[in-house]
Amino acid sequence: MKESDTHRAKLEEGQAKAARETMSVVGEERFEPVEEAVRLQQSNITDLERLKQMRRRAAEVGDWDGILEAALWRAMRESDTYLAILDEGQEKATRESILVVGEERFGPVEEAVRVQLANITDLDRLKRMHRRAVKAANWQEILDTP
């Protein structure tokens, strides 16, 4: 590491420590002494911005769980698993929308169409298919959307 990188890392480490200490002092004044479990959770959070957010929340929420919840919620929203679940939900909703539009325009959906649609996992393609479903002449035209 360059000297400036080392300095920057030490500075962030010091800011993180100060944020944790401030959070603890404010929390102890507002709620109760910090339990060891809370201290452990705090020490495992290394992202300075997340710690700053928690420090701000210490003055706003009613208990230690409220402080920690914000950090855990943000971490969850940034996790690959959570993002994959969101994508899967969008795919499912878009497929359902395609089926609704298609059924309105062409009548009942054949099982083969449902199977083909279920096998498409490219969300962008599903969105294009949904737009095409509004003007398509038949199911095959929708399924042929690149």
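(ticket continues) Second input and output from the same batch:
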Amino acid sequence: MPWRRAESSYDHLNVGHVLRTIERLQARIAETFPRRHLADVAGTVHSVISRMVTDAERQRPVRLALRIVSRVVIVVLVALSILTIVLAIRDAAGNASSRPAFEWLPILESGINDVVFAGIAIWFLISLEGRWHRHRLLATLHRLRSLAHVVDMHQMSKDATQLLPPADGPEHHYPVLTAAEFGRYLDFCSELLSLIGKGAALCAESSTDAVVLDTVSEIETLTTGISRKVWQKITLLQRYAATVASDLLVASDPSAGSAGSASSPGLVRSAGSASPSVGTASEQLLD
């Protein structure tokens, strides 16, 4: 089944929409983190899916030729098998009166062998197109699986503990990313993992092969598991931002300590007056 590019349908993924979503995500990542390589990973995901669709359209005549040739060969093979069996039976029937019963066994064995080998050849020819298409899809799925692991490596180095001051004091502690940037980066990783899963789902829409469907399911499980880890980190960042904002509120107004322990979104945002950078980060993370 070919991929759908332009028509609007709500029961199939539209590959054009998927590619445009990846393009927009890549542009957002490049704008927010111009010195990071996550945008390059998004570009690679786009190129893999785009090449998959382009190859499928270019190889459609090849698949059609394989289907026609295999069907023609099957017809010829079946005709030859039937002709061989008919000739053997006619020859045996003509000499039936002078042939002992045990001499029928080699003829029967030869006929069974012809039928079995013809069946094997027919099965091979019928599945030839499907196996060729499966090989192409599995190559794409293996690349998508590798890209999911690449995204996992990108998010693995982003830990909320990097925002904490070192043990020897906070005087010279300058984190590479702020809390808000950490959350933004992890959110981009989650979106990219979701789009990798969508690319795998496109392969499932073009094939009903059991091996392809199992591989697609494995990739979707992989991306979902990594995305779950990403959102656990985002949750920790939100708690960290709320804790920092609450501490700043208590430091600026000691009488508000009891209220800070039960901080509400309004109190968290009010901490921005004490420290604009931390307040802004907390507000972006907690919204």
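Agent notes: The chain is about 75% helix and 0% strand. Confidence is low (pLDDT under 50) at residues 257-287. Closing as not reproducible unless the customer responds.
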